[in-house]
Amino acid sequence: MLNKGNKLYSIFTSKCPQCHEGAFFENKFSFNILKATETKENCPNCGLKYMREPSFFYGAMYVGYAISVAIAVALYIISAVFFGLDMKQSLIVIALGLFALAPWSLRLARVIWIHLFIKYQKDKSQRVK
Ligand SMILES: [Zn+2]
After folding, report:
1. In angstroms, what is the span from residue 89 Cα to ligand 1's centroid?
2. Distance from the CA of 105 to the center of ligand 1, in angstroms?
3. Which member of 23, 31, 60, 98 lies 3.0 to 4.6 Å from 109 by CB, making a disulfide possible if both were Cys?
4. Burial class (CB in 10 A: 0-12, 13-18, 19+), 102
């Protein structure tokens, strides 16, 4: 199901949206937000320019907001329903959870954002490096 050519594969492995081969980020995941979200200029495999236009990744904020809301709802359900915490305690859990997951959600938001605009091209993925 999750093979090359599938957007979910490319999103969760942080690959180029056009060839699903080249890396999207400069570094592997880290909890340092600046390092974690550093994006390559171009795809090392097909040469796709990741920064489509100036400030292209500001739009990823909308995706990041949706991801944060989903995380907050999930954490609220887990803390209130399964652990029986009150509202104040749940808010602390949500704040800590969002803070801890920020590098991951920022990376995911950027990858999802660029995948909204660029389609997979099979011929690009077969180019020799
Ligand atoms: Zn590529």
Report:
1. 45
2. 22
3. 60
4. middle
